[in-house]
Amino acid sequence: MASQILNRFKQFDAYAKTLEDFRVKTASGAFITILGGTVMILLIISELHTYMSPNISEELFVDTSRGHKIRINFDIIVPRISCNYLVLDAMDSSGEQHLQIDHNIFKRRLDLDGNPIEEAKKRRNNDFNCSSK
Question: Which UniProt key words apply to this protein (predicted)?
Fold first, then answer.
């Protein structure tokens, strides 16, 4: 039964078979065939192993492409508190903290209704005594 299936499988070929008289079987031909088959199997196993085990590379670096500073405009009214108690702290996306930022920040006194008493101006030495009385 198995031999019949094998014979049918041998007959199922897209290429014409050469006659047995024209076939030359040599030991060197067998060696080259076995060597080529072995190399193909090893290459398939090697590529499969490379495909199945990914190379994970972790790299940490500082992103220097971001801009140095971003302009932020804000207008905040805080009633009934002295300007000495108001400070601005910031943290950027990399986690760097900037504490008590006071450059280019202008504080001005307001009356009880929120109207400015004086024009905004930068004071020296963080002297922001601008609470309304």
Answer: Membrane, Transmembrane, Transmembrane helix
